[in-house]
Amino acid sequence: MENPSTSKVVLLACGSFNPITNMHLRMFELARDHLEDTGQYSVIKGIISPVGDAYKKKGLIEASHRVEMARLATESSEWITVDSWESQQSDWVETAKVMRHHYEELLAREHNRDNVDTVKYTKKRRIEENYIASSVHHRKRDGPQLMLLCGADVLESFGIPNLWKQEDVAEIVGRYGLVCITRSGGDPHKFINQSDELWKYRKNIHIVHEWVMNDISATHVRRALRRGRSVRYLLPESVIHYIQEHGLYSAESEQKNADVVLAPFQKYSDASTSG
Amino acid sequence: MASCRVPLVLLACGSFNPITNQHMRLFELARDHMHSTGRYEVVGGIVSPVSDGYGKQGLVPAKHRISMAKLALQSSNWVTVDEWESQQPDWTETVVTMRYHYGRILKEYEQSAERHSDASGNFASPSSPFPQLKLLCGADFLSSFKIPGLWLDDHVEELVERFGLVCVSRGSLQPERAVHESDTLFRHRRNVFLVREWVRNETSATEIRRALRRDLSVKYLIPDSVMEYIRQHKLYTEDSERRNEGTALRPLIKQAHQPIKSLDD
């Protein structure tokens, strides 16, 4: 971290977090280890940004619960935080726009260190220290970099028609950057190679290999909860208590948004028929 | 739970070097599965770390492995740590460990039955069945039975006939094949319970130690309390990984026919 040539990085993870699992949290740890190991980066903060209810994904429960569970899950982390901005927007927000929002926040904070999100004081101070520690050696005035943290499935979803706008993909990987956690089985390098768009920005795409297979999907967790099976050790105890207390994830909640088209498909297929 | 269900205790033997979330998951999966048979009520789980005499490379002292397992299981209301096996001066065969625990469980059962009969002025109620003890193990364990000279035939027989196995697999057909290929296991197949784990999670203790040696994060793979304990006691370094290096496993010395420990990595 004392290396004067390291760039500060903030990692942003977008997703449903329905509910957050240990695997989501592991992705942050893996990404930080990987980026810092290159000697070029120091990761100063992680942001979890749960999607808004307007995303209309099947079984997506209220954002207030998903944000609260993510907050509980990150209580024991010194650097991972939760931001509710995206979840509070009435419409679904494209990931590129979410990145723009957070990048502007980061730049603003560079000028006046005014923390706007709801982070506990100790964590806030720790993150502030990270900023300062890395900026002491930062004579050149380049702000922190924001990178999107995702699984290999997101990278591969760039190829699904009508899910992403191509200019958004270019903005995410071209202007910001991507940290992609891959599990054995997938081959993200091949995927990048086969896409001219991604190939152009390959230097902004960081592939992290996950050696310890840890494939806890939120879908699996919800299924186990519906069936009254144990989910202990798959997600933090505090989140399990919260789910029990509020009676979340039942057969009914899984029917939410059934037969509703996912917001991005609605948005882009409308655009393509009208344009 | 209906009282006609058989009270069942699950025993896991292994290095627990260190205990991981995955070890604790095995217990949860096994309990759910045994409950879903409708015939058992899981009344307890026991983590039994192997003794230092096992001679496995990188095995840190039992007192640390015990402490870590206790910290990890603080939040569990049904799985506990037992030190008996770890305190034996020599490595103990799994079947011998099972005999010890079953004797202990039976004694407790008889005492509670006596208390029951004292109170009612009658013999223990015949509606409450005898408790059972089964070995909880991972998928590769069953395959170890067919390695020539590794197991004593009568130990395999006793393990599956008298006690029983609950084996958690990670989606391969390995356990089914092992039962199919062994006449002993096949004969007692009704006492071998195969549990399917749908979440791929291969957090082995070996990977945890490797990450710790390399100063990589293991957060969310093992409990925070265990992470903190490892940090405080500076366990799992390149030096600790060289413990017992070049030493033959105790089972292979003690007797040419010994079982591989379950839940081992």
TrEMBL record, chain A:
Organism domain of life: Eukaryota
Record-annotated Cytidyltransferase-like domain positions: 12-223
Keyword Protein biosynthesis: no
Biological process according to GO: NAD+ biosynthetic process
Metabolic or biological pathway, per its Swiss-Prot or TrEMBL entry: Cofactor biosynthesis; NAD(+) biosynthesis; deamido-NAD(+) from nicotinate D-ribonucleotide: step 1/1; Cofactor biosynthesis; NAD(+) biosynthesis; NAD(+) from nicotinamide D-ribonucleotide: step 1/1
GO cellular component terms given for this protein: nucleus
KW ATP-binding (keyword) present: yes
GO molecular function annotation: ATP binding; nicotinamide-nucleotide adenylyltransferase activity; nicotinate-nucleotide adenylyltransferase activity
Coiled coil: none
CDD domains associated with the record: NMNAT_Eukarya (cd09286)
Catalytic activity: beta-nicotinamide D-ribonucleotide + ATP + H(+) = diphosphate + NAD(+); nicotinate beta-D-ribonucleotide + ATP + H(+) = deamido-NAD(+) + diphosphate
Keywords, sorted A to Z: ATP-binding, Magnesium, NAD, Nucleotide-binding, Nucleotidyltransferase, Nucleus, Phosphoprotein, Pyridine nucleotide biosynthesis, Transferase, Zinc
Subcellular location: Nucleus
Cofactors that this protein relies on: Mg(2+); Zn(2+)
Enzyme Commission number: 2.7.7.1, 2.7.7.18
Pfam families: CTP_transf_like (PF01467)
Subunit structure: Homohexamer. Interacts with ADPRT/PARP1.
Similarity comment: Belongs to the eukaryotic NMN adenylyltransferase family.
Record protein name field: Nicotinamide-nucleotide adenylyltransferase
Organism of derivation: Xiphophorus maculatus (Southern platyfish)
UniProtKB/TrEMBL annotation, chain B:
Keyword Repressor: no
Metabolic or biological pathway, per its Swiss-Prot or TrEMBL entry: Cofactor biosynthesis; NAD(+) biosynthesis; NAD(+) from nicotinamide D-ribonucleotide: step 1/1; Cofactor biosynthesis; NAD(+) biosynthesis; deamido-NAD(+) from nicotinate D-ribonucleotide: step 1/1
Catalytic function, reaction form: nicotinate beta-D-ribonucleotide + ATP + H(+) = deamido-NAD(+) + diphosphate; beta-nicotinamide D-ribonucleotide + ATP + H(+) = diphosphate + NAD(+)
Chief location category: nucleus
Required co-factors: Mg(2+); Zn(2+)
All residue ranges annotated as the Cytidyltransferase-like domain in the record: 11-210
Keywords: ATP-binding, Magnesium, NAD, Nucleotide-binding, Nucleotidyltransferase, Nucleus, Phosphoprotein, Pyridine nucleotide biosynthesis, Transferase, Zinc
Pfam families for the chain: CTP_transf_like
Any one GO BP annotation for this protein: NAD+ biosynthetic process
A GO-annotated cellular component: mitochondrion
Subcellular location: Nucleus
Origin: domain of life: Eukaryota
MF annotations from Gene Ontology: ATP binding; nicotinamide-nucleotide adenylyltransferase activity; nicotinate-nucleotide adenylyltransferase activity
E.C. designation(s): 2.7.7.1, 2.7.7.18
Family listed: Belongs to the eukaryotic NMN adenylyltransferase family.
NCBIfam families: nicotinate (nicotinamide) nucleotide adenylyltransferase
Record note on quaternary structure: Homohexamer. Interacts with ADPRT/PARP1.
Family matches, as PANTHER family: NICOTINAMIDE MONONUCLEOTIDE ADENYLYLTRANSFERASE (PTHR12039), NICOTINAMIDE_NICOTINIC ACID MONONUCLEOTIDE ADENYLYLTRANSFERASE 3 (PTHR12039:SF7)
The protein, known as: Nicotinamide-nucleotide adenylyltransferase
Organism of origin: Xiphophorus maculatus
